[in-house]
Design brief:
- This protein is of the alpha/beta class.
- It is built from 16 helices and eleven strands.
- The protein folds into two domains: 296 residues, NAD(P)-binding Rossmann-like Domain (Rossmann fold, 3-Layer(aba) Sandwich), CATH 3.40.50.720; 108 residues, 2-Layer Sandwich (Dihydrodipicolinate Reductase, domain 2).
- It has a seven-stranded parallel β-sheet with strand order 3-2-1-4-5-6-11, with helices on both faces. A four-stranded mixed β-sheet has the order 8-7-9-10.
- Strand 9 and strand 10 form a beta hairpin.
- The longest helix is centred in the C-terminal third of the chain and has 22 residues.
- The two termini are 20 Å apart.
Length: 439
C-alpha cells in the first residue's frame, strides 16, 4: 500500500480548483453537470464518489456507507473550474457548439458557464494535425511556455482563492510517441524543452508545469505525457500523485466487463472485431492516422492483459483483435461502438456475441473527470505520491510502477480501489479469506 493503514488525511478545507486542459465536449459536459447537480437539477449518475458505497467489515455488520461520507472528499460546492483551450469560447459557447447537452439545460446554467473563459493554450499542430486555433501561447521554447503555464496556475489559484488544485488532461489525442532518450531524467528533459525537441509534446509541457506547481495530474488521453521517467521522478520529488492514461468510457469499458467473464468461465476466443462511429472533435482528430495509432495502442492492449494468452494458450493464443475508428460527423458525440466476438466452448464448438453500444461519449466521461479530481485531491492530502494504480479503474491503459503490468479487469480494479479506501480509513481489507469479498 502507498501509505500506512489509517493514515492521517488533511481536511478538505476551502476551494478546490479543477484545471482542465481542453474546454471541449468532455470538459463542458463535466462542468455543466456539476453546476446542475449543485443546483439540484440533476443527480450525479455515473460518479462512484457521489453515489457509490463501500462495504466495511462482515456482511452481517451492515456497514455500507457512501464513499463521500466515508472519506473526507472535497464537496461539489467547493469546486472552481479553469481551463486552457485553443479556441477562446466560454464554457457556455463551447458547450453549445459541442451539442452534448440540451439547450434548455444550458440556458439555465448560462451564468456560471459564461464566466469560464479559457486561458491561451500551449499547442503545436504537429502533434494534433486535424485541429488549429488562435487562442495559443507564444514563446521562444517549450520551457518558456511551461513557465507561462506555471504563472497561469498561480494566477488562477490566487484570483479564485483556491486552497488546492488538480489538473486533468481532457484535450485531444496527440500523435503516437515512444519514450526517447531525452525523457530519461529531469535534466535531459528540461534541456530538451529549451531546445524545442520534438520528443516534448504539449501534454508533457502541461504535466511538467502542474508538477512543478505542486498540482496532481491526471491524463485522460492515451498520450505518453506523464508516463516517462523524467516526469515520474518529478512527481515523486514533489510528492505529487499522478494517474492515467485514457478515460475508459464506451467500447473498452464493455471489453473490460465482458472479457473477464469469458475468462472466468474458461471460454475461448478466436477473434474480437471492434469498430467505432464517432462524429465529435475527438472523432475528427482520430481520423488522422498518427493520432489513431496512439488510441489504437491503448485499445489493443486491454484483451492481451486480461486474457493472458501465455498462461492460457489453448483458449487465447493468436486470437485476432481488430480496432477501427470511423469519423462520421452526423453522429456527433453520440458514439456507436460495434463489436463482433467469435468465441468457442465445450469441444471447440463455435459461438458469437454481438454488441452494439449506442453511447454518449462525454456523458460517460464527465463523471470520470469528477471522480479523478476528488480522488487525486484526496491522495494529495494523504501524502500519496507517484502513480496511483488504485485509480486504474478509470483508464483504458493504466499507468503502473516500473516493471509491473497493468490490471485491466474492471472488477479487480474496483476491488483494488475500494480496498485502498478501506486501508486509508484503517478498515480491514475484504478478501475471500476471513472477510468474504462481496461488494
Amino acid at each position: 500500500m502507498p501509505v500506512k493503514k489509517g493514515a492521517e488525511i488533511a481536511p478538505a478545507k476551502g476551494k478546490l480548483g479543477v484545471l482542465l486542459v481542453g474546454l471541449g465536449a468532455v470538459s463542458t459536459t463535466f462542468i455543466a453537470g456539476v453546476e446542475a447537480i449543485k443546483e439540484g437539477m440533476a443527480e450525479p449518475i455515473g460518479s462512484l464518489t457521489q453515489m457509490g458505497t463501500v462495504r466495511l467489515g462482515k456482511r452481517t455488520d451492515n456497514r455500507v456507507p457512501k464513499i463521500k461520507d466515508f472519506l473526507p472528499l472535497a464537496s461539489l460546492k467547493d469546486l472552481v473550474f479553469g481551463a486552457w483551450d485553443i479556441f477562446p469560447d466560454s464554457a457556455y459557447d463551447a458547450a453549445m457548439h459541442a451539442g452534448v447537452l440540451e439547450k434548455d439545460l444550458l440556458a439555465k446554467l448560462k451564468k456560471p458557464l459564461q464566466k469560464i473563459k479559457p486561458m491561451k493554450a500551449v499547442f503545436d499542430q504537429t502533434y494534433v494535425k486535424r485541429l488549429s486555433g488562435e487562442n495559443v501561447k507564444q514563446g521562444k521554447n517549450k520551457l518558456e511556455l511551461a513557465r507561462q503555464l506555471i504563472n497561469d496556475i498561480a494566477d488562477f489559484k490566487r484570483k479564485n482563492k483556491c486552497d488546492r488544485l488538480v489538473m486533468i488532461w481532457a484535450a485531444s489525442t496527440e500523435i503516437f510517441m515512444k519514450q526517447h532518450a531525452v525523457h530519461r531524467n529531469l535534466e535531459t528533459f528540461e534541456k530538451a524543452m529549451r531546445e524545442n525537441h520534438k520528443a516534448i509534446a504539449p501534454s508533457m509541457v502541461y504535466a511538467y508545469a502542474a508538477l512543478k506547481s505542486g498540482v496532481p495530474f491526471a491524463n485522460g488521453a492515451p498520450n505518453l505525457t506523464v508516463d516517462i521517467p523524467a516526469l515520474m521522478d518529478l512527481a515523486n520529488k514533489q510528492g505529487m500523485p499522478v494517474c492515467g492514461k485514457d478515460f475508459k468510457t464506451g467500447q473498452t469499458l464493455m471489453k473490460t466487463i465482458l472479457a473477464p467473464g469469458l475468462k472466468s468461465r474458461m471460454l475461448g476466443l478466436h477473434g474480437w472485431y471492434s469498430t467505432n462511429i464517432l462524429g465529435n472533435r475527438d472523432g475528427e482528430v482520430l481520423d488522422d492516422p498518427d493520432s489513431f495509432k496512439t488510441k489504437e495502442e491503448s485499445k489493443l492492449s486491454v484483451l492481451e492483459y486480461i486474457l493472458q494468452p501465455d498462461v492460457y494458450p489453448q483458449l487465447y493464443k493468436d486470437f485476432s483483435h481488430v480496432v477501427r475508428i470511423n469519423y462520421y460527423p452526423p453522429r456527433g458525440d453520440n458514439k456507436e461502438g460495434w463489436d463482433n466476438i467469435d468465441i468457442f466452448g465445450w469441444l471447440g464448438y463455435k459461438m458469437q456475441i454481438k454488441i452494439d453500444f449506442l453511447c454518449r461519449d462525454s456523458i460517460l466521461a464527465a463523471p470520470i473527470v469528477l471522480d479523478l479530481a476528488l480522488f487525486l485531491d484526496l491522495a494529495q492530502r494523504t501524502g500519496m505520491k507517484g502513480v496511483q494504480e488504485w485509480l486504474s479503474f478509470y483508464f483504458k491503459s493504466p499507468m503502473t510502477a516500473p516493471g509491473l503490468y497493468p490490471e485491466h479487469d474492471v472488477f479487480i480494479q474496483l476491488m483494488k480501489l475500494k480496498n485502498t479506501l478501506r486501508h486509508l480509513r484503517g478498515e480491514d481489507l475484504i478478501t475471500h479469506l476471513g472477510l468474504e469479498y462481496y461488494d
